[in-house]
Amino acid sequence: MAFLLKSAHVVDPVAGIDGIVDVKIENDRIAEVGENLSADGAEVIDLSGKVLVPGLVDMHVHLREPGYEHKGTIESETRAAAKGGMTGVCSMPNTDPVTDNGVTVEYVKSVAEREGHCRVFPAGAMTRGLKGEIISEMGDMVAHGAVAFTDDGHGVQGAGMLRRAMDYGKMFDKVFMSHCQDDDLVGEGQVNEGVVSTRLGLLGWPAEGEEIQIARDIAIARLTGAKLHIQHISTARGLDLVRAAKEEGLPVTCEATPHHMFLTEDAIGETYDTALKVNPPLRTAEDAAAIIEGVVDGSVDAIVTDHAPHAAWEKAREFELAPFGMTGIEASLALVNTNLVKTGKIGYARMVELMSIAPRRILGLDPVSIAAGSVADITVFDPEVTWTVGAEGYESKADNCGFAGTEVCGRATDVFVGGKRTLCDGVVC
Ligand SMILES: NC(=O)N[C@@H](CC(=O)O)C(=O)O
Ligand SMILES: [Zn+2]
Ligand SMILES: [Zn+2]
């Protein structure tokens, strides 16, 4: 199959392109990039007015399968990913059974190959059953295609345990991704601890509960030489710790979510909306501004969604009883376009770095580029179209999106994964 993508505004900082050119795809690869390319039998798609970038990868996504198919399936959540413009996702291991051995990694990969709408790169658990007691089958998982290790959903509570996991696992040359949460300090915390938790009468989840583990994990990365990636960073001081680690030259990276940048704890007070209950919690306006500053100055490496679908009945409970997590993969490109690009905080080249290049680099995936010979993983979006999050429902099985009702600008129109079209004019195909 061959496609000639005509007249899009192509942005790829790696290839050094920021202008209107044509892109020709033949089979799974980009065959040619240049002006006025001839079709020669290729299907011509006119992309005037659209932006074309190296395929987006969301490196923090909960697909829920196996085990929690009532929340989401590999089919439904990769469908949501395609709708959001993603060409790949890194799936979290807090499934049932936990993705902590090669067989489960293989299961996720094979279902994704059969039913998925984007590439799925599974992360494997750091400890068996996410219990923090015994190292998982790291070598087995890597042999079956795991790209990273994480106990996401829990912090690894024991520093010695983390040290042993990193010391052992670093031979596989994969990144260790940390969900930073000191259980003893956080306890049953529901929302950020401070004025808002007091006013709402909800138990507080203090910033320090995250920052203590960020500091500890950086120290253990220094001790072991393992690569460390801090997941869903949410506090100003936590980001300063990452900055200091980078200055020291440690292999430390971090990611931030749209909800920790564009929503704050203040949103919860108006509604007690359980879609706004996330882990780590929405923080203060100062924290959100600091994370955005980190995105602008390069301290934040990647933008991810931590897309965490839950069934409606699970979220339709008292705030304290509802599970943590919100969906967001269908809106993240639009939220970044609206709040960061349209406001002039970053340009498209930086957006591509945050949502496409850095996630692949951190996960050790093959790079893609808008250049002849590269694998044809491509995202195309209309940067001007306005729409309301959730107004037409979601492709995800779940609707616990904390941005529902928000008017945003920009939307993916076409996605190619290995030269195959997965989103056609806004429709998952
Ligand atoms: N972020 C969340 O609030 N929830 C995630 C777990 C996690 O990412 O820690 C989930 O699995 O639902
Ligand atoms: Zn987490
Ligand atoms: Zn997560």
TrEMBL record:
User: InterPro entries this protein is in?
Assistant: DHOase (IPR004722), DHOase/Allantoinase_Hydrolase (IPR050138), DHOase_cat (IPR024403), Dihydroorotase_CS (IPR002195), Metal-dep_hydrolase_composite (IPR011059), Metal_Hydrolase (IPR032466)
Quote the record's binding site residues for Zn(2+) 1: H60, H62, D152, D306
Question: Pathway, according to UniProt?
Answer: Pyrimidine metabolism; UMP biosynthesis via de novo pathway; (S)-dihydroorotate from bicarbonate: step 3/3
Provide the cofactor list for this protein.
Answer: Zn(2+)
Q: Which keywords accompany this UniProt record?
A: Hydrolase, Metal-binding, Pyrimidine biosynthesis, Zinc
Domain of life according to the entry = Bacteria
- For this protein, the Enzyme Commission number is 3.5.2.3
- What Gene3D superfamilies does the entry give? Metal-dependent hydrolases, Urease, subunit C, domain 1
Which residue ranges does the record assign to the Dihydroorotase catalytic domain?
A: 49-235
What does the record note about the cofactor?
Answer: Binds 2 Zn(2+) ions per subunit.
How would you classify this enzyme at the top EC level?
Answer: hydrolase
- The entry's Zn(2+) 2-binding residues are D152, H179, H232
Which residues does the entry assign to the active site, renumbered to this chain?
D306
Q: Which reaction does it catalyse?
A: (S)-dihydroorotate + H2O = N-carbamoyl-L-aspartate + H(+)
Show which residues constitute the signal peptide.
Answer: none
MF annotations from Gene Ontology: dihydroorotase activity
Q: Where does substrate bind?
A: H62, L63, R64, N94, N279, H310, F324, G325
Family per record: Belongs to the metallo-dependent hydrolases superfamily. DHOase family. Class I DHOase subfamily.
The task this protein performs is described as:
Catalyzes the reversible cyclization of carbamoyl aspartate to dihydroorotate.
- What is the protein name given in its UniProt record? Dihydroorotase
Q: Look up and give the organism this protein is from.
A: Enorma phocaeensis
By which gene is this protein encoded? Answer: pyrC
